[in-house]
Specification:
The complex is a heterotrimer.
Chain A lengths: L6 H13 L12 H20 L1 H5 L8 H26 L5 H9 L17 H21 L5 H29 L3 H20 L11 H6 L7 H18 L10 E3 L4 E3 L5 H11 L3 H14 L1 H13 L14
Antiparallel strand pairs in A: 1-2
Helix pairs in contact in A: 2-4, 4-7, 6-7, 6-8, 6-10
Chain B lengths: L2 H26 L8 H29 L3 H6 L10 H4 L5 H22 L5 H30 L2 H18 L9 H7 L5 H18 L19 H16 L6
Helix pairs in contact in B: 1-2, 2-6, 5-6, 5-7, 5-9, 6-7
Chain C lengths: L13 H9 L15 E7 L7 E7 L3 H12 L7 E6 L4 E4 H5 L16 E8 L10 E8 L2 H11 L7 E6 L4 E2 L5 H5 L1 H4 L14 H4 L11
Antiparallel strand pairs in C: 1-2, 1-3, 3-8, 4-7, 5-6, 5-7
Classes of the chains: A mainly alpha, B mainly alpha, C alpha+beta.
Chain lengths: ~325, ~250, ~220
């Protein structure tokens, strides 16, 4: 872009590109606030994937069949992979993964509230796949259209993989909801605890969402929190009913006029309490991440030390004598 | 196949499956807790592969004995398991996990190379299927062995400490079971002494090249029926959901 | 000596020799945390298909970068070849930067440097998310800047929005022998393929609002 342009002229051109549906790529001019908002949002998203490994990861060792164990390891592995893609998207904006992780571990960065709830029974794993990943897919599908190229590309890849997460969870809960009395209780108990937090995943009501206006103006977010939440409710309620589960909301009703399922009031006090660090598992989640990071320090150092002295850079080793 | 041969083969397959299961279980414990994100992903890959191998071996046991793989995994007590103590050990630090992985990968590479020529065709086919994945595991764990062995004084110290624990336990991988001679005569399973020598021929130079030295000569366990206390706690964790409802299909 | 050791690990302790040779007496790595350098990853799905930039991995060295690239980007099929290159070796340019670059036509090739091969990657759509930065050809050039200059001249069609040039010498590649061990195992992991599960995603919507009774309520 010619250097003589004023900031306002650049901004106008930038917004015109977004209006035309063009992707902004690394290296292109962008307003500082666009870069800042993106780094904040993408890194929060990445942190959510990383912290999100913990509640389900805790059940890998308890998975009750070989197949479920395989599926769960693969799913939690995908979450690490998604975190990896997302940190990459943030890095393309000039952020360093080290700094982003430091901010998370210092308690200065946010991640999705949902992972501050505990996983109390095995069916929670299935319910997270169905509800939590289902809600995440709604949000991520929207983000595939985001104006920043690397973010939208990461989202396309992530959505394709999340479909597996959703379907394995739905398969599991559907089976349990029709299974033994013990399994039916597990499935219902899981729904009772995950229903409301999953609705909160879409963020505060539009009226209280401070960042939304800017994010929508620049094509980072394409739908409002409340609009996405309603889409999710309309889609998931009939699915849960079909599985024979009871949604823990006495006010839930279908509104003929609007064609929407309407829920009772969401407890936003709880949402703000958890986001401020006072959820049931906030401290435990960060403790686990810090321990992993601190215990890994000597490993990262040793590998860097080897590389700095080694001639292996640029060459590749082979597995001689083993084939 | 006569009953003695069938029993001997099933016992050998069960021990092999049990090893893979335990190692997969331990490796999966790193998911979410590894030193860097890329390694969360790498270890989860290895754990899946090993669990896949365990499923294949349990499947061959089922063909011989009719025992369901999930029943074998979730409803046997410690005394009925035939896993080696090396793979039952807690994951330890990253050095312990990587060195155990290396020692086991070298064993599995040597084993699968021989089993690919087994006269029992289902074993030969299974081994051929697994060898490709195992080659990758070996490449990964050898890379780590060398780098941690030679990285810093601390990484070398940790690797040496891991070797001191693991070395005496590794011998149990090659310990004889009743019926081995029968399997060997039929060409169903390789001779374990020869396997051990081939393994030593690979791992000892690699350990030396990684700057790891002499280790204590303490005698380790031999018989695969002898387990560590860790197996009980591992099984309690692994089996708790399945055993809470025996009728359930999971 | 342990009975396992047919040839014992001897008391000559190669350990100390190797460590002495290998270590540089510095404190460089003390208290310096690191996520390791970044490596660009290029993936070819099938023979004959173009290489596409799929993302980066963090890795301490070239061999680990290739292994990490495989673990991160080939959790699912399919892949035929992977390349990695240190991120710093990749020179990038966007159409917008090009437009603002007034001195571009006069930028000289580096004098006296030997020519070497560079791979040229382009992204050719402003809009669609999944048009990746894709390999389109090679140029011989004396420097990255020279390679970029040629790339823009040769592949400067109006729809190009991103150019990358990568020196061939910076690439670390998987080879045909690696396919079976690195890439084919993903084919066996059918449980992570969503199509192996029944049904479609969000079937509730397709039923509309017809389910009005709350079973068991």
């Amino acid at each position: 872009m010619p250097p003589e342009l004023t900031h306002d002229e650049r901004l106008t051109a930038f917004e015109a590109r977004i209006a035309r549906g063009e992707k902004i790529e690394p290296g292109d001019w962008m307003p500082d606030d666009y870069r800042r908002q993106l780094i904040r949002m993408i890194s929060q998203h990445a942190h959510s994937e990383i912290v999100g490994m913990l509640p389900e990861g805790a059940w890998i060792e308890h998975a009750p069949s070989l197949r479920r164990k395989l599926i769960l390891i693969a799913k939690v592995q995908d979450e690490a992979g998604h975190g990896q893609y997302l940190y990459h998207a943030a890095e393309s904006l000039g952020a360093e993964r080290q700094d982003l992780i430091d901010a998370l571990l210092a308690g200065k960065a946010k991640y999705s509230n949902i992972f501050n709830y505990p996983t109390l029974n095995w069916a929670d794993v299935g319910m997270i796949g169905w509800l939590v990943d289902g809600a995440a897919i709604k949000n991520q599908t929207m983000l595939t259209g985001a104006s920043y190229g690397p973010y939208s590309r990461a989202m396309v890849r992530i959505c394709a993989e999340e479909t597996f997460h959703y379907k394995q969870g739905k398969e599991m809960i559907t089976l349990y909801a029709q299974g033994t009395p013990h399994q039916r209780r597990m499935a219902q108990d899981a729904l009772d605890r995950w229903w409301w937090p999953s609705l909160m995943m879409f963020g505060p009501p539009d009226a209280d969402s401070t960042n939304s206006t800017t994010l929508m103006r620049w094509g980072i977010k394409l739908k409002s929190n409340d609009a996405l939440r309603q889409e999710f409710i309309d889609e998931i309620v009939p699915e849960l009913h079909a599985a024979g589960l009871c949604i823990p909301d006495p006010d839930l009703r279908y509104d003929e006029n609007s064609g929407h399922w309407l829920t009772g009031p969401i407890d936003w006090d709880e949402f703000w309490r958890v986001i401020k660090g006072n959820g049931p598992m906030n401290r435990e989640r960060l403790r686990a991440r810090r321990t992993a990071h601190d215990d890994g320090l000597w490993v990262r150092e040793a590998m860097a030390a080897y590389a700095s002295r080694s001639s292996v850079i640029g060459k590749r080793s082979t597995v001689s004598g083993q084939r | 196949m006569n009953d003695d041969l069938r029993a001997a083969l099933a016992a050998r397959l069960l021990a092999t499956a049990d090893d893979e299961l335990m190692l997969a279980h331990r490796n999966a414990e790193w998911t979410g807790h590894a030193p860097i994100l890329e390694e969360d992903i790498a270890l989860a890959n290895i754990a899946q592969d090993e669990l896949g191998h365990a499923s294949i071996w349990y499947g061959l046991v089922e063909e011989l004995t009719g025992q369901d793989p999930d029943r074998l995994v979730f409803f046997r007590d410690a005394g009925e398991y035939r896993s080696a103590q090396m793979v039952e050990q807690p994951r330890g630090d990253w050095a312990f996990t990587m060195l155990r992985q290396y020692l086991f990968d070298a064993y599995e590479m040597a084993l699968l190379a021989r089993l690919a020529g087994s006269a029992y065709q289902p074993v030969a086919d299974a081994a051929a299927r697994m060898r490709n994945e195992e080659l990758y595991h070996y490449r990964h764990s050898s890379a780590w062995l060398r780098r941690l062995g030679l990285g810093t004084a601390e990484s070398n110290r940790r690797m040496q400490a891991a070797l001191d624990v693991l070395w005496p336990l590794a011998g149990q991988l090659f310990s004889p079971q009743p019926g081995d001679a029968l399997l060997n005569v039929e060409g169903y399973w390789p001779d374990l002494n020869e396997l051990r020598q081939a393994w030593s021929g690979v791992v000892i130079p690699a350990l030396e090249e990684a700057g790891l030295g002499e280790t204590a000569s303490a005698a380790g366990p031999d018989d695969r029926r002898v387990h560590s206390a860790h197996l009980d706690t591992l099984l309690a964790d692994m089996q708790m959901v399945a055993r809470a409802d025996e009728e359930a299909v999971w | 000596m342990n009975r396992l050791l047919k040839t014992p690990i001897t008391a000559t302790l190669t350990k100390h020799i190797l460590i002495t040779d290998y270590r540089t007496p510095t404190t460089d790595h003390q208290n310096m945390d690191t996520q390791w350098p970044r490596w660009e990853v290029f993936k070819q799905d099938r023979p004959g298909k173009p290489f596409e930039a799929v993302g980066t991995v963090h890795a301490p060295d070239a061999e680990m970068a290739l292994l990490n690239a495989r673990d991160v980007f080939v959790r699912r099929p399919e892949c035929h070849t992977l390349w990695v290159a240190p991120e710093a070796a990749v020179l990038r340019l966007t159409a917008q930067e090009l437009a603002g670059r007034q001195d571009w036509p006069d930028e000289p090739a580096t004098e006296g440097s030997e020519e070497m091969a560079y791979h040229v990657f382009l992204r050719q759509s402003h809009r669609r998310s999944m048009v990746a930065v894709t390999l389109v050809g090679q140029v011989l050039a004396a420097s990255s800047a020279d390679a970029m200059h040629q790339a823009v001249a040769q592949y400067g069609a109006s729809d190009t929005v991103v150019w990358w040039v990568v020196p061939d010498s910076a690439l670390i590649r998987s080879n045909d022998d690696d396919i079976a061990s690195m890439f084919e195992p993903a084919l066996e992991k059918t449980y992570r393929d969503q199509t192996t599960y029944r049904g479609r995603i969000f079937e509730g919507r397709r039923r509309g609002g017809t389910v009005k009774e709350v079973p068991g309520a």
